[in-house]
Design a protein that fits this description.
The protein has 288 residues and is of the alpha+beta class. Helix content is 33%, strand content 13%. The chain has helices spanning 16-24, 78-81, 84-92, 113-122, 177-181, 211-226, 232-247, 255-267, 272-285; strands spanning 29-33, 37-38, 95-98, 105-110, 127-130, 135-140, 146-150, 153-156, 162-163.
Length: 288
């Protein structure tokens, strides 16, 4: 008797040979259903039941045996791709997608003629793939993904997926600086922070070691926030939590110290409201 999770060779998806060819070339692939959308999370992974892998926000490959979590489901494992739930998904799939960063590339998605004209005037020529309405320009190298970096232009690389539309034409160029610059936000002026959040009363020395211990801890917390390259929201919260766990019940943590942390967070693009909420949530987590 045939195992129910195995698909007979004569019933395999017509997409599967292409899928396995791409995987063998080191291109992580995933199925798309109608509308160019990935398959939804399985019941075992809904509502974060899969322990921290919700809705494409984690930074590593999905461990679910099904094609869940969008870009993070992409894989090059032929055994996974050709059997079980994946084989069933390919039978229902309308197209093939891939994770650009997993393949070591960045896709500049040019959605219309104006965007293509801009790219031809501005960017280094590279491999081009025709799309329904425009072109994908593919560069060697990876970066942060972002949508709407300019009219008709999206960047697809890390933590994103792109539809596979063929190998394209032209030599693939290294990722140029003007493409990276598209996702760099211009610095904004930081207003002086007014702290209206909780700060323990007191003013004596830190009972753990010395005042220098607190100063070093605040400086390290500022540095941790400043050096965050991704997941800034989470980094700010975790940093606030770490500071409060050590100094939250001391008499030495003042509004001036909290203002330094808030200023560092706002310099990374966080709003004052988010800083206040993150601080309050950290206090609640610690039972303060």
């Amino acid at each position: 008797m045939t195992h129910p999770t195995l698909i007979r060779r004569d019933s395999r998806s017509p997409l599967l040979p292409q899928v396995l060819e791409l995987a063998s070339a080191g291109i992580p692939v995933l199925p798309l259903r109608a509308g160019k959308l990935p398959f939804g999370n399985c019941l075992g992974c809904t509502d974060n039941r899969c322990s921290g892998r919700p809705n494409m926000k984690h930074a590593g490959p999905c461990q679910c045996p099904r094609p869940c979590h969008g870009w993070a489901a992409a894989t090059t494992d032929p055994t996974v791709l050709a059997s079980g739930p994946w084989a069933a998904a390919w039978q229902q799939a309308a197209a093939v997608a891939y994770h650009p960063a997993g393949a070591g590339v960045t896709v500049v998605d040019l959605d219309n003629a104006d965007a293509i004209a801009w790219a031809r005037e501005t960017l280094t020529p590279t491999r081009a793939v025709a799309t329904t309405r425009g072109e994908h320009w593919i560069y060697r190298g990876t970066m942060q993904s972002a949508n709407g970096v300019r009219p008709g232009v999206d960047i697809k690389s890390s933590m994103a997926y792109a539809r596979w539309l063929g190998h394209g034409t032209g030599a693939m160029a290294p990722l140029p600086a003007p493409v990276r610059a598209l996702v760099v936000k211009a610095p904004t002026a930081i207003r002086p922070v007014r702290c209206t959040v909780f700060a323990p009363v007191g003013g004596g020395q830190c009972p753990h070691r010395s005042p220098a211990f607190l100063e070093r801890g605040i400086a390290m917390a500022e540095q941790r926030i400043t050096e965050a390259r991704s997941a800034v929201h989470a980094t700010v919260y975790r940093t606030f939590l770490a500071v409060l766990s050590v100094h939250g019940r001391c008499g030495c943590l003042t509004g001036a110290h909290i203002a330094r942390l808030f200023t560092a967070a706002q310099a990374k693009g966080e709003s004052a409201r988010h800083c206040t909420d993150a601080w309050a949530n950290a206090r609640t987590s610690l039972g303060m």
